[in-house]
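## Example pair
The file below holds two records. Each record gives the amino-acid sequence first, followed by its structure token line.
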Amino acid sequence: MRIPLVAGNWKMYKTAAEAGEFVQQLKTLLKDVQGVEVAVCPPFTALYAVARELAGGKVALGAQNMHWEEEGAYTGEVSPKMLKEAGCRYVILGHSERRQYFQETDQMVNKKLKAALKWGFVPIVCVGEQLAEREAGKTAAVVAGQMEKSLDGLNSEELAGVVIAYEPVWAIGTGRTAQPEDAQQVNSFIRELLAARAGRPAADKVRILYGGSVKPENIASLMAQPDIDGALVGGASLQADSFAAIVEGSRLRGRA
């Protein structure tokens, strides 16, 4: 049974104080929600403040990135050891903004993914094509390449514990959203790639999210698709009411 997951990626928004206030509102809005897992991924500086507010509740804590080494001379980086102490359960890896602005490669994502699994995190691995690649009919080739390199060396058991997020780059922060049927087509393709790599039982356990201008208005149509198991939410996760509405629209839909 695949339980839907909705994760909010706050990117470089919210101070520790703002994050704490936000989570207080969110906890009230989600106090009765069941049938869906929820996570918020604040900036590193707000992790401890958010962890304090989330303690003992239903909402899990996630990080937006991490280094693959436990410690070392890596100025400006944050290690899995640090995130574990902060109380993180999830970690986003390979987001398109990391790839675009910080030259993060699939090989780097692979190192981070292996470290995340070693430290007991639930990694959310992002894949997705640029607009030019989509218009050239290269979506499948791009996604397949990212999957192959990012997941290299993982066995079936490890793959079953990974979350994949399909985020077409052209839809992130643009207001443009893939049509539910188009998103389903790519998510289904991703599941077939997983089945070919790790077998059908493992592939059927993997939650495959959609991300890219997810809003309360489109979550129901996205979640009606058989291979969309939740959402990685950007801008709409910065407002407690809109994020709670997305969570509500994702609930009570387990996957066999």
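Second record, same layout:
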Amino acid sequence: MEEVFINKVANSGIETINLETYFPVGERVSIDVKELLFMELVLKEKDFREWIKANDWTQYSEKFVAVYCSSDAIVPTWAYMLISSKLSGIAQKVVFGDLNALESALWENALNTLEVENYKDKKVVIKGCGDLPVSAAAYTNISSKLVPVVQSLMYGEPCSTVPVFKRKTN
């Protein structure tokens, strides 16, 4: 008698979301204003504006750019605005903050395209392992989007999951 194998995972009704399909493709770079400050402390407007004029902004073409200051200096808001204005139409995206802030913003934009209503009352697994660097920001973001609509949310692989959320039944 031949043994029949039943794929319980396939029959479980579990939906899998692979965040890699939403991965924002493009080079990530940063501009640290600290490098433009006098003694890493003071922004001299004349020197800063000269740097703005002389800088080759095309080096940021189609890149994702984080603009921040890593030193404990007070940088006027207009300085960040000047950099952003020069990157407008050149970079794919510009954010204020470090590379982690950039990554969070990219994932938020990417996951805004997710049709959460497609997962209403379903069991959902967010795939955990992969080839691309999916940030913790992406997992946090997708969790907050899905928890209000799903029956349950899990992390990992459908055959081996970590429970994250389960809606209470009345």
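Notes on the second record: The chain has two domains: 14-24+115-166, 28-91. The two ends are 45 Å apart (CA to CA).
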